[in-house]
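Dear V.,

Thank you for sending over the compound details. I've combined the ligand you provided, pyridoxal-5'-phosphate, with the protein sequence from our construct and run the structure prediction for the complex. I'm sharing the raw inputs here so there's no ambiguity about protonation or stereochemistry in the SMILES, which I know was a concern on your side last time.
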Amino acid sequence: MSAVTGKEIWLDGSFVAWADARVHILTHTLHYGLGVFEGIRCYRSSDGRSAVFRLGDHLRRLYDSARINLLQIPFVPGVLEEACLESLRRNDLAEGYLRPLIFVGDGVMGLDPADNRVRAAVIAWSWGKYLGEEGLRRGIRAKVSTFCRHHVNAKMTKGKTCGDYVNSILAKREARLDGYDEAIMLDTQGLVSEASGENIFVVRNGVLRTPSLHTVLDGITRATVCEIARDKGIPVEERAITRDDLYVADEVFLTGTAAEVTPIREVDRRPIGNGERGPITALLQSAFFDAVAGRERKYERWLTYL
Ligand SMILES: *Cc1c(COP(=O)(O)O)cnc(C)c1O
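Below is the predicted structure of the protein with pyridoxal-5'-phosphate bound, written out as structure tokens.
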């Protein structure tokens, strides 16, 4: 992946030049990982305008993540919303990725950040297909990680907390070093939870299944795909999935803002179904891309036009 770059970054309430968005080495979050973030995409819609997908839902989750971690975001949601939209404009992005980040500034060190300033940034950049164009079309290869997802009472699963991603990075890098594209993580009971940064679905006998929310992030793409599937008459069940449920599935796919809807064609050297993108995955994938591009009236409420 190429280095991220752009023109301006929103930092603590105003825009600064890209190169000037710097922090002190004593920035608390850098040492201990207490911070929260979001990942949001903006798409060019079919009429040529740009629209951010489910911006309100992402910002709601950002504030939830902060609340879980006892962080007080020093801005009201409307300010961050405008910062997101303006970041796209100022960086000339008709399509792109938005990264709001709430972090603890420098001041005291140690595990109680006390009165250190809570800081906020929004960065916008151009981001292509996270798991590749080919991955979206043909499906990717995944392995079950040797690393478990954190116990639900260690990692607060409703939040996107910076430090929790060390667990995801370990799993992702292990998978890549072992020649796979992505890691699927089991929870501490041994049940399938999610991938390193994506929720997971299996299809068997025409029924869509995904793990319930206990050990996984409440993904906005996950919720989107569940709603689209139900609207199309595909039954959706939230329940436990075992490792071998993956092996015998007709289809498996991942969802996430970065990964969108990405088929998995192989898990642990076992081809899934025919070893290619399955028909229900293809249907949901194209419906998802219709929704984000404003091609489906019913889902236009998810779009915030620039
Ligand atoms: C962000 C994330 C997802 C996907 O959530 P979306 O809201 O769909 O982007 C899934 N799992 C983890 C661990 C994540 O961090």
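A first observation: The chain is about 25% helix and 25% strand.

Warm regards,
I. M.
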